[in-house]
Amino acid sequence: MINDTAIMRAHAAAVSVLLLGNRRLKPSAGLLAGDRLDPLARLSIGQMACDAQADLVHIGFDDRAGVPEMTDITIFVPRDRICWSHLGCRLWLSKSGTRALLLPQAHVRGSFRLAPGEIIHLGFKPLDVEDGVARADARLRELVERGVDLADRVAIHDWPIWQ
User: Fold this and answer.
1) How far apart are CA 83 and CA 97, in angstroms?
2) Helix (H, G, I), strand (E, B), or coil: what is residue 36?
3) By C-alpha distance, which of 76, 66, 69, 7 is closest to 44?
4) What's the order of all strands across the beta sheet hosting 118-122?
5) Phi, psi of 106, deg, nearest 5
6) C-beta of residue 73 within 8 angstroms of C-beta of residue 59
7) What is the spatial distance between Cα 21 and Cα 79, in angstroms, rounded to a whole number?
8) What is the pLDDT of residue 81?
9) What is the dihedral of CA 74, 139, 8, 151, to 10 degrees?
10) CA distance 92 to 134
11) Which backbone phi and psi does 119 adopt, to 5 degrees?
12) Rounded distance, CA 157 to CA 154, Å?
């Protein structure tokens, strides 16, 4: 039987492969997974990102029919004592299927790429947004279903903060 932690771990591993490819995540960037963030939780994680001076990608889950489902991606980018955050991001994948981009909501300029040590703002959005999001969703499902060997590129830890 698959538990909630296993589902979140599988998605975190798959998202890390989509965003990083075969690159190794550095300590100045991180990927978190957990419940969908309410405003207070976003503020807390933003403060944590500022304190650590680490760019963070948070994968949010909602409980759907007793099973956690990935519903949101939020990024936190501390710069110059301010932490910028963008909720409601989506994964976008090109036709060539290389590394995915993070697309913020439509009113936000540009897109984002997770480099091994930081989140980089790109001054453009791809033209085929819906097709690219569909490609990324399909690839994510495939990676979650078959599993991902992360080797030593990303370390995944379980830290249940509710206990």
Assistant:
1) 31
2) coil
3) 76
4) 29-35, 55-64, 67-79, 82-92, 101-103, 111-115, 118-122
5) -55, -35
6) yes
7) 25
8) 84
9) -110
10) 8
11) -95, 125
12) 10
111 within 8 A of 125, measured Cβ to Cβ: yes
Length of the chain as a residue count:
163
Q: 129-146 vs 4-20: helix axis angle to the nearest 10? A: 130
Span 4-48, pLDDT tens digits: 888 888 999 999 999 998 888 888 999 998 889 999 999 999 999
- Cα(98)–Cα(101) distance, integer angstroms: 10
Strands 118-122 vs 29-35: parallel, antiparallel or unpaired: unpaired
The two structure tokens encoding residue 120: 């980089």
> Which residue shows structure tokens 């710069």?
79
With vertex at residue 60, the alpha carbon angle to CA 130 and CA 120, rounded to the nearest 5 degrees, is 65
28 contact partners, CB below 8 Å, separation of at least 6: 53, 54, 55, 117, 118
Tokens 């909630």 sit on residue: 4
With cut-offs at 50, 70 and 90, classify the pLDDT of residue 161: low
CA distance 114 to 34: 19
Rg of the chain on CA atoms, in Å: 15
What residues contact residue 129 under an 8 Å CB cut-off, 6+ apart? Answer: 92, 103
